[in-house]
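Deviations from the work plan: none for this task. Representative record:
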Amino acid sequence: MIVAERKSLEEIRRTIAPYERVLIVGCGTCATVCGAGGEREVALLHAGLRAMEARSGEGWHTFLEFTVKRQCDAEFLDALVDRVREVDAVLSLGCGIGVQAIAERFPTLPVLPGVNTSFMGMAKEWGVWDERCAACGDCRLAETAGICPITRCAKGILNGPCAGTKNGKCEANNEMDCAWVLIYQRLEKLHRLEDMRRYYPPRNFRVIPRPRRIVSKAEVAVGGNNG
Amino acid sequence: MAKSSFEEKLDANEFVVTTEVGPPKGCDVSGLVHDIDLLKDKVDAINVTDHQSSVMRFPSIGGCLLVKEQGGEPVLQVTCRDRNRLALQAELLFAHSRDIHNVLCLTGDSVDVGDHKEAKPVFDLDSVQLLRTARLMETGTDTSGNELKGAPQFCLGASVHPGADFIEPQLIKFDKKVEAGAKFFQTQGVFDLASLRRFMQYASQFDVKILAGIIVMASARMARYMNDNVPGITVPQPVIDELATAEKGKGLQKGVEIAARFVKTIKEEKLCHGVHIMAVGNEKIVPDILERAELISVGA
């Protein structure tokens, strides 16, 4: 899933400054699971902004709250149509896709990000999120024992560890595991060490010209049942 | 094309001595030229580092040109950290055009350890891919299969870490570098002869030259600092303890003693094909080490 972190109250306050009435919109999918922008976080942010404004004596904003099921899906944004009429801007706690989906849906409405979209990852333990996929468009996990060196190696290198690894950790961050040590250890358990001996040519960055688009309409049922 | 003098010595199985200089942060190259002058006739080649430890400096290629101007033999260090495959290939073409053929191909330290931590890390290629790229260019082709007008030629080197705490993955990478066309290796700093011996037992099956990396420590404090902050370096406790026995202000002298002892043993036991001395800022003491190790005569 997509993992995000809420921006600081100070930064949010600066971005909403020009707008009197602000609708804080949460997202019921990834942003909810990672605790950055679900219904609960919308309410907490609302309370936080109010408290901050009260302290500073400049509390002239009006806040409304609403959380949609999925900000990145146009069909769920219909629920915002009536609500956005009453506001001057939307503060989205969805990921960067959510912010842009709302902006596309409402061409004359200012949409501001309330979170920093960080990465695609998973919960390592409660409250700890780790990046796992870089969406490189050319998955090599079959050859690297299911551990992604593009994402988990600080240098994203393909032919084995650099010399900076120490105690199984990365030279860029000694709290992070060296991806290539993990790959070696797992390949060894799988009796697949020969995979590491193979030469991996330079990556093909042509598979990720930005922005990317995938067209596969045939596999998507029209009108729903797609999650 | 004629081989570089360094390559000729490697081919002749001479015990080769290389050292390295770090370019300045800024345009004033007088100190660098001074170091080059001091070293050029005492060693077989001088590496010029490429933004060592990811600290932005005068470039390696510029330093190599200065080595040439002063009549020395340069080794160009090329890391993959700051340039994509277009820029790396361009640099190799330029190096060849200026008669710089010795190239040490490195992945490069992480930008996180340097002084421009917010920079974009490139790593379009890694060290193995860079070696293969250089070898491919020698055949007259670039990495997209286009024909080159005039093919370069190189004496390619790479790095290896015999003292790594988990050696097996490093050895796989070493194999891949050999296969990719590395002719010589300048190792990461080795401080313990036992791990060097073990590594050489393994490496001797390949037709490559291994130059043992010797880092000259200036104090016990520096050794501890390097352990904590410099990627790929582990100074063992006995070496730190020996450095700590030095009288105040005489740490570097002790470091020189230790380095000279290592070099001498390596030479006498024919443990490696040469040594690569890294004085990290104290380049002036390199001749002293070589004299003590009896590799050059006193006052030579």
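Chain B has one domain: 15-291.
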